[in-house]
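Note to self: keep these together.
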Amino acid sequence: MTFGKAVLSLAVLLLATVPLALAQGTYTQIDYPGALYTECEGINAAGNISGIFQGAAGNWQGFYFSDGVFTAINYPGALATYLYGLNDAGQIVGYASFPGYSYVGFIYDATGGTFTEVKYGGANSTLPIGINDVGTVAGAIEVGKNVFGFELVGSAFRKVVPPGAQSSGVAGVSESGELVGSVSYGQTEASFYFNQDQFRRITIPDTPHAIIEGINSTGSAIVGQKAGSPVGFLYQNGSVQQVRFPGYGTYVAGVNDALQVVGYFQDNSGYYHGFLWTPPADAAKK
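Structure:
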C-alpha cells in the first residue's frame, strides 16, 4: 500500500463483521506489461483507468489505461510517481516522491501530457487522491506531524476536518462536490460525508468502521474496505455487496456511474494485480 492510501486509511481496528453478499458480475485481471505489481486506483465514465505499477527496476510509476493501451506516466525528476483518481476530461491526480521523503502533488492532463503542481500552503506534503469533472481536487495534507483532509476548488484550498478529529483524509469527491473520507478521534476511526459545510457519518450495513476509498460522479455509490479484512465492498441504494477477486484478498479503490469497480488483489506469491469488476447488465439501472 502506498503512502497516500496509508495516510487516508489511518489506524484500522481488527473487527469481526457479518459476511456481506458476494457481488455478482465479471472480474477482469489487469497487469501493466512486465510489471512486478499493478494497482488500479481510478476509473471514469468511459472506463479509462488510472493506477500505479512497479517496474522490473523496482521503481513505482503511474499508468493510464485507455482503449486497451497502457501509457506510463512519470513526474519529471521524481523517484516514484503515484496516480489515483481521474475524471471524464482525462485529468488524473496523484503525487511524486523525491529524495528526503519529499512529496509533490499534481494534476496530470492525459490529453496534453502536462503536470500542474498542487500545493497546500504551509503543508509538508500535499497528496491529491480524487478529482471530479469540474476540477475539484481532494486528498490529504501533512502539516508538521498532523494529517488533515483538503479540497481545492478553483484556486481556493480549505482543510476538511470533522469537529474533534485528531486526523482526517478525503478519499473522493462527487460531481456535486460531496466529499467522502476517513477520520480518527484517537482510539476510534470513522468515515464521513462532507457537503455544503456539513459533516455526516457514513454507516455501512454490517460493516462497522468501514474504510471509504472512493465515490462515483453522481454520489450514488461508494466503495471501501472492511476493517481489518482484505475484502472490499460496494455500497449503493442502501445495499452493500462484497467485492473480492475470486480466491484472493482484494482491495478496492474506485467506482464509476456504471458501477464498475477497480482495485487490486494479492496472489499466493505476494504479488499485486489490478482488476476491473463489471456488474451484471441490469445492476447499474437500479
